[in-house]
Amino acid sequence: MRELVYYAAVSLDGRIAAPDGAFDAFPIEGDHIDAINAEWADTVPGPLYDALGLTAPRGRFSTVLMGWNTFAAGLPLTDDPYPHLEQIVFSRTRTAADVGAGVRLTADDPRGVVADLKAQDGADIWLCGGGVLAAQLRDQIDRLVLKVNPVVFGDGLPLFAGGYAPDVFVRERSRAFDSGVVMNEYRRA
Fold first, then answer.
1. Which one of 2, 73, 122, 136 has the fewest CB atoms closer than 10 angstroms to its CB?
2. Are 100 and 77 in contact (CB under 8 A)?
3. Where is the signal peptide (predicted)?
4. What's the 3-state SS for 66-92?
């Protein structure tokens, strides 16, 4: 069965972006980037993958899920960020004219969409963000992969923007990089 994997960069204080949605405070150079490009190539946007001349195999994920704000962060560069994946963007206010041809925009309940996706054949499902969508899908997340960055935001968009409801995850792997980034992988207990 396919798993829903929330793979995201996060600050030391649990923020995935600044209050305005910017995420440029996260370091974009260092040995952690080499590991991402080699081991998590599906998460590198198509235009960047091509521009960097990457050849790392893809196939860890076959679908990416995004809330509108996460998708919109890339709009200055492309309206089709992950052409190698089935792309699903959740919004109740946008129309198909707001996304590229390779992107499915839906106002459907994310929980039902994920249940349907999990029942289909394919590689895992990447929950790219944001925090509101992650909060809606929290009980369906099978794995968390958090790139913990050595920066404190103080304020901003949280990893999960929802109410208090503890869920237990078990750490499977932790990998520290010279850049200061620590990649932690957890599985639902």
1. 122
2. no
3. none
4. EEHHHHHCCCCCCCCCCCCCEEEEECC
Q: What is the pTM of this model?
A: 0.97
Tens digit of each residue's pLDDT, the chain (189 residues)? 899 999 999 999 999 999 999 999 999 999 999 999 999 999 999 999 999 999 999 999 999 999 999 999 999 889 999 999 999 999 999 999 999 999 999 999 999 999 999 999 999 999 999 999 999 999 999 999 999 999 999 999 999 999 999 999 999 999 999 999 999 999 999
Burial class (CB in 10 A: 0-12, 13-18, 19+), 101: exposed
Q: What are phi and psi of 128, to 5 degrees?
A: -80, -30
Cα–Cα distance for residue pair 145/161, rounded to 1 Å: 17
- Tokens representing 54 are 């990457």
**Among residues 34, 21, 71, which one has the least CA distance to residue 181?**
34
Note whether 34 and 63 are within 8 A (CB): no
In whole angstroms, give the CA distance from residue 73 to residue 46.
15
What is the C-alpha to C-alpha distance for residues 133 and 159, in angstroms, rounded to an integer?
Answer: 10
In 3D space, the residue among 130, 143, 8 whose CA is nearest the CA of residue 69 turns out to be: 130
